[in-house]
Write a structure and sequence with these properties.
This protein is of the alpha/beta class. It has two domains: 59 residues, Uncharacterised protein PF01937, DUF89, domain 1 (Helicase, Ruva Protein, domain 3, Orthogonal Bundle); 221 residues, Uncharacterised protein PF01937, DUF89, domain 3 (Rossmann fold). It is 49% helix and 12% strand. The protein has a seven-stranded mixed sheet with strand order 1-7-6-5-2-3-4, with helices on both faces. The chain is globular and about 60 Å long.
């Protein structure tokens, strides 16, 4: 997925807001923003990948400000709020008796969790909306390939689950459990270090997904989405050997759509910006469940 012209405003706005989160030192703020502007002047072009640009921007912010995790407090709050609404999603799933309907409800809850992202102009997100969004997830589903995803998942012996954001990962537990109920060995992968508000091993332990998944590991990279050339050999060996991959979020949509995939991937996300929405030909603020071949 390539950038659109309007992406520049989002990339810069997120950088500006994140710099303010990272440091109160005015000289460092200007130095960091100057570095981002110089980088974008060279690399913002029609063929650029938004996830790559976001990754490079965030690495510059961390390097120059010296703040290793500017979104740390917001990630902690996201985990807390997601755990508070988790029983609502669990109740919705538990009311279903068939494996397919339970799987469907778990997918929808996991997709709604993807709304937990900050500083996106098109994503008017409030924690107070989470419960209602979970209850109304079906009505916001613009691309529905959950039946096909279920059919693939029920025949998979091994599944790799690529997580996205902190907070969201609490709701991912429900889908991981349903995948295990179908008989799969499930490995959950998180980022190797802080990037935006993406989940790390620390977040995985806080929400308890390590108690549900068979294995929790890092990708070996702190990039937005998935760039195989940055990942560890252990992760790549697993990635290339599993029967099925579930990938969460816009970063994975932006990167996986550019790769030759080793196996089918289920892409679960919320269309939180116009560029991603346009790519999938849906409105912003919609739920997407799509198989990538």
């Amino acid at each position: 997925m390539n950038v659109e012209l309007r992406c520049i405003s989002c990339i810069l706005n997120r950088g500006y807001l994140q710099i303010q989160e990272a440091t109160n030192d005015k000289s460092l703020q200007f130095k960091t923003l100057s570095a981002i502007l110089s980088f974008l002047a060279e690399e913002f072009k029609p063929t650029a990948n938004p996830a790559y640009l976001g990754t490079k921007r965030d690495r510059l912010i961390r390097e120059i400000t010296g703040n290793p995790d500017p979104y740390k407090q917001k990630k902690q709050l996201s985990n807390q709020k997601a755990l508070e609404v988790l029983p609502v999603a669990q109740s919705i799933i538990s009311k279903e008796t068939s494996p397919e309907l339970r799987f469907r409800k778990a997918c929808l809850s996991a997709i709604v969790g993807n709304i937990m992202e900050f500083d996106l102009p098109d994503n008017r997100f409030k924690f107070a909306d989470l419960e209602k969004l979970i209850q109304e997830a079906e009505s916001d589903l613009a691309i529905d390939e959950i039946p096909q995803i279920f059919n693939k998942a029920k025949n998979a012996k091994s599944v790799l689950y690529l997580t996205d954001n902190a907070g969201e990962i609490a709701l991912d537990k429900l889908l991981v459990q349903e995948l295990k109920n179908l008989g799969a060995h499930v490995t959950v992968a998180v980022k190797a270090g802080p990037i935006l508000n993406d989940a790390t091993l620390e977040d995985a332990k806080i929400v308890g997904i390590d108690k549900v998944a068979d294995v929790v590991m890092s990708t070996g990279s702190d990039s937005v989405g998935l760039f195989p050339e940055e990942c560890s050999e252990d992760f790549l060996k697993l990635y290339r050997s599993v029967d099925f991959v579930v990938a969460k979020g816009m970063g994975h949509a932006e990167t996986l759509t550019e790769l030759e995939l080793p196996v089918l991937h289920a892409l679960l996300l919320r269309s939180k910006c116009c560029t991603v929405a346009n790519h999938f030909n849906v409105d912003t603020g919609k739920n997407i469940a799509k198989l990538l071949h």
